[in-house]
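Input chain follows. Return C-alpha coordinates only.
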Amino acid sequence: MAASCRVVTSISDIPTGIPVHLELASMTNRELMSSIVHQVFPAVTSLGLNEQELLFLTQSASGPHSSLASWNGVPDVGMVSDILFWILKEHGRSKSRASDLTRIHFHTLVYHILATVDGHWANQLAAVAAGARVAGTQACATETIDTSRVSLRAPQEFMTSHSEAGSRIVLNPNKPIVEWHREGISFYFTPVLVCKDPIRTVGLGDAISAEGLFYSEVHSHY
Protein backbone atom coordinates (compact mmCIF):
# COMPACT_ATOMS: atom_id res chain seq x y z
CA MET A 1 0.00 0.00 0.00
CA ALA A 2 1.40 3.40 -0.90
CA ALA A 3 2.41 5.66 1.95
CA SER A 4 0.47 8.88 2.37
CA CYS A 5 1.91 12.24 3.42
CA ARG A 6 0.31 15.15 5.18
CA VAL A 7 1.88 18.59 5.39
CA VAL A 8 1.28 20.40 8.68
CA THR A 9 2.24 23.91 9.76
CA SER A 10 2.45 23.27 13.50
CA ILE A 11 2.68 20.38 15.95
CA SER A 12 -0.90 21.07 17.04
CA ASP A 13 -2.04 20.07 13.54
CA ILE A 14 -0.68 16.53 13.93
CA PRO A 15 -3.38 13.99 14.85
CA THR A 16 -3.04 12.55 18.34
CA GLY A 17 -1.49 9.12 18.61
CA ILE A 18 1.14 9.67 15.89
CA PRO A 19 4.80 9.64 17.01
CA VAL A 20 6.65 12.82 16.00
CA HIS A 21 10.41 13.24 15.43
CA LEU A 22 11.99 16.70 15.73
CA GLU A 23 15.41 17.34 14.15
CA LEU A 24 16.99 20.41 15.70
CA ALA A 25 18.95 22.95 13.67
CA SER A 26 21.62 25.46 14.63
CA MET A 27 20.37 28.61 16.33
CA THR A 28 21.74 31.53 18.35
CA ASN A 29 18.66 32.77 20.22
CA ARG A 30 18.77 31.32 23.75
CA GLU A 31 15.26 32.48 24.59
CA LEU A 32 13.90 30.69 21.54
CA MET A 33 15.79 27.51 22.40
CA SER A 34 14.54 27.64 25.99
CA SER A 35 10.94 28.00 24.78
CA ILE A 36 11.42 25.01 22.42
CA VAL A 37 12.70 22.91 25.32
CA HIS A 38 9.76 23.75 27.56
CA GLN A 39 6.93 24.02 25.03
CA VAL A 40 7.84 21.83 22.04
CA PHE A 41 9.81 18.94 23.54
CA PRO A 42 6.81 17.58 25.51
CA ALA A 43 4.83 17.39 22.24
CA VAL A 44 7.36 15.32 20.28
CA THR A 45 8.25 11.66 20.65
CA SER A 46 11.81 11.63 19.36
CA LEU A 47 14.58 14.21 19.02
CA GLY A 48 17.70 14.39 16.82
CA LEU A 49 20.60 16.80 17.32
CA ASN A 50 24.36 17.27 17.00
CA GLU A 51 27.02 18.47 19.44
CA GLN A 52 26.61 22.21 18.77
CA GLU A 53 22.84 22.00 19.23
CA LEU A 54 23.19 19.90 22.40
CA LEU A 55 25.62 22.33 24.03
CA PHE A 56 23.53 25.37 23.09
CA LEU A 57 20.45 23.60 24.44
CA THR A 58 21.96 22.97 27.87
CA GLN A 59 23.40 26.51 28.00
CA SER A 60 19.98 27.98 27.16
CA ALA A 61 18.07 25.89 29.69
CA SER A 62 20.71 25.85 32.47
CA GLY A 63 21.30 22.12 32.19
CA PRO A 64 24.35 20.02 33.06
CA HIS A 65 27.77 21.35 31.97
CA SER A 66 26.11 24.59 30.82
CA SER A 67 29.19 26.59 31.88
CA LEU A 68 31.18 24.90 29.11
CA ALA A 69 31.84 27.51 26.43
CA SER A 70 32.59 25.01 23.65
CA TRP A 71 33.64 21.41 23.12
CA ASN A 72 37.38 20.83 23.29
CA GLY A 73 37.76 18.63 20.21
CA VAL A 74 35.66 15.45 20.34
CA PRO A 75 32.66 15.97 22.67
CA ASP A 76 33.21 14.16 25.95
CA VAL A 77 30.96 11.08 26.05
CA GLY A 78 30.24 11.40 29.77
CA MET A 79 29.18 15.03 29.42
CA VAL A 80 26.99 14.25 26.42
CA SER A 81 25.42 11.38 28.33
CA ASP A 82 24.72 13.64 31.33
CA ILE A 83 22.92 16.20 29.15
CA LEU A 84 20.87 13.55 27.32
CA PHE A 85 19.91 12.04 30.68
CA TRP A 86 18.86 15.47 31.99
CA ILE A 87 16.71 16.18 28.92
CA LEU A 88 14.80 12.94 29.27
CA LYS A 89 14.56 13.14 33.08
CA GLU A 90 13.46 16.78 33.17
CA HIS A 91 11.48 17.06 29.92
CA GLY A 92 10.72 13.48 28.87
CA ARG A 93 7.85 11.18 29.65
CA SER A 94 7.35 10.00 33.22
CA LYS A 95 4.50 8.95 35.48
CA SER A 96 4.24 12.50 36.80
CA ARG A 97 4.78 14.41 33.55
CA ALA A 98 2.53 14.67 30.48
CA SER A 99 5.29 14.51 27.87
CA ASP A 100 5.65 12.34 24.77
CA LEU A 101 9.45 12.65 24.55
CA THR A 102 11.08 9.24 25.06
CA ARG A 103 14.00 9.11 22.60
CA ILE A 104 17.04 11.21 21.61
CA HIS A 105 19.44 10.46 18.74
CA PHE A 106 22.69 12.36 19.26
CA HIS A 107 25.20 12.44 16.42
CA THR A 108 28.67 13.91 16.23
CA LEU A 109 31.39 13.19 13.68
CA VAL A 110 33.10 10.25 15.40
CA TYR A 111 30.32 8.63 17.46
CA HIS A 112 26.55 8.49 17.97
CA ILE A 113 24.42 7.87 21.07
CA LEU A 114 20.77 6.85 21.25
CA ALA A 115 19.08 7.47 24.62
CA THR A 116 15.59 6.14 25.35
CA VAL A 117 13.17 6.03 28.25
CA ASP A 118 12.78 2.35 29.10
CA GLY A 119 9.63 0.60 27.93
CA HIS A 120 8.93 2.72 24.85
CA TRP A 121 11.41 1.68 22.14
CA ALA A 122 13.01 -1.52 20.86
CA ASN A 123 15.75 -2.49 18.40
CA GLN A 124 17.87 0.51 19.33
CA LEU A 125 21.20 -1.32 18.98
CA ALA A 126 20.40 -1.90 15.32
CA ALA A 127 19.06 1.65 14.99
CA VAL A 128 22.19 3.37 16.27
CA ALA A 129 24.37 1.09 14.12
CA ALA A 130 22.29 1.91 11.04
CA GLY A 131 22.69 5.64 11.63
CA ALA A 132 26.47 5.27 11.93
CA ARG A 133 26.62 3.20 8.76
CA VAL A 134 24.72 5.74 6.69
CA ALA A 135 27.01 8.49 8.02
CA GLY A 136 29.97 6.69 6.42
CA THR A 137 28.31 5.73 3.17
CA GLN A 138 26.55 9.04 2.45
CA ALA A 139 29.58 11.19 3.27
CA CYS A 140 31.75 9.08 0.96
CA ALA A 141 28.93 8.71 -1.63
CA THR A 142 29.25 4.91 -1.64
CA GLU A 143 26.66 2.15 -1.42
CA THR A 144 28.59 0.28 1.28
CA ILE A 145 31.40 1.14 3.68
CA ASP A 146 34.70 1.30 1.78
CA THR A 147 37.31 0.55 4.46
CA SER A 148 40.06 2.25 2.45
CA ARG A 149 38.16 5.55 2.58
CA VAL A 150 37.16 5.68 6.27
CA SER A 151 38.94 5.89 9.61
CA LEU A 152 38.03 5.17 13.25
CA ARG A 153 38.43 8.28 15.41
CA ALA A 154 36.07 7.56 18.32
CA PRO A 155 37.51 7.56 21.87
CA GLN A 156 38.83 4.12 22.75
CA GLU A 157 37.70 4.53 26.36
CA PHE A 158 35.40 6.93 28.18
CA MET A 159 33.33 7.54 31.31
CA THR A 160 29.56 7.16 30.98
CA SER A 161 28.90 10.13 33.30
CA HIS A 162 30.59 13.02 35.07
CA SER A 163 27.56 14.04 37.16
CA GLU A 164 27.57 10.78 39.09
CA ALA A 165 29.87 7.80 39.50
CA GLY A 166 29.76 6.55 35.92
CA SER A 167 31.39 3.45 34.51
CA ARG A 168 34.62 3.41 32.53
CA ILE A 169 34.04 1.82 29.13
CA VAL A 170 36.84 0.39 26.99
CA LEU A 171 35.74 -0.24 23.41
CA ASN A 172 35.93 -3.82 22.20
CA PRO A 173 36.65 -3.94 18.43
CA ASN A 174 34.70 -7.20 18.20
CA LYS A 175 31.65 -5.66 19.87
CA PRO A 176 31.87 -1.90 19.25
CA ILE A 177 28.30 -0.97 20.21
CA VAL A 178 28.07 -0.30 23.94
CA GLU A 179 24.93 -0.21 26.08
CA TRP A 180 24.48 1.16 29.59
CA HIS A 181 21.57 2.14 31.83
CA ARG A 182 20.83 4.92 34.31
CA GLU A 183 17.63 5.35 36.33
CA GLY A 184 15.20 4.03 33.73
CA ILE A 185 17.03 5.42 30.71
CA SER A 186 19.07 3.27 28.30
CA PHE A 187 22.05 4.50 26.28
CA TYR A 188 23.42 2.95 23.09
CA PHE A 189 26.83 4.15 21.87
CA THR A 190 28.50 3.37 18.55
CA PRO A 191 31.71 4.63 16.96
CA VAL A 192 31.46 5.99 13.42
CA LEU A 193 33.70 5.07 10.52
CA VAL A 194 34.48 8.61 9.38
CA CYS A 195 34.89 9.35 5.69
CA LYS A 196 38.44 10.65 5.09
CA ASP A 197 37.50 12.80 2.09
CA PRO A 198 33.78 13.56 2.37
CA ILE A 199 31.87 14.27 -0.82
CA ARG A 200 28.27 14.61 0.34
CA THR A 201 27.59 16.12 3.78
CA VAL A 202 24.50 18.28 3.19
CA GLY A 203 21.57 16.73 5.06
CA LEU A 204 23.77 14.15 6.77
CA GLY A 205 22.19 14.68 10.18
CA ASP A 206 18.72 14.18 8.72
CA ALA A 207 19.87 10.99 7.00
CA ILE A 208 21.38 9.62 10.22
CA SER A 209 18.22 10.24 12.23
CA ALA A 210 15.96 8.94 9.47
CA GLU A 211 17.94 5.70 9.16
CA GLY A 212 17.87 5.24 12.92
CA LEU A 213 14.11 5.72 12.98
CA PHE A 214 13.67 3.27 10.10
CA TYR A 215 15.23 0.53 12.23
CA SER A 216 13.45 1.55 15.44
CA GLU A 217 10.40 -0.07 16.93
CA VAL A 218 8.12 2.20 18.97
CA HIS A 219 5.77 0.57 21.43
CA SER A 220 2.13 1.48 21.01
CA HIS A 221 1.66 3.78 24.00
CA TYR A 222 0.69 6.67 21.72
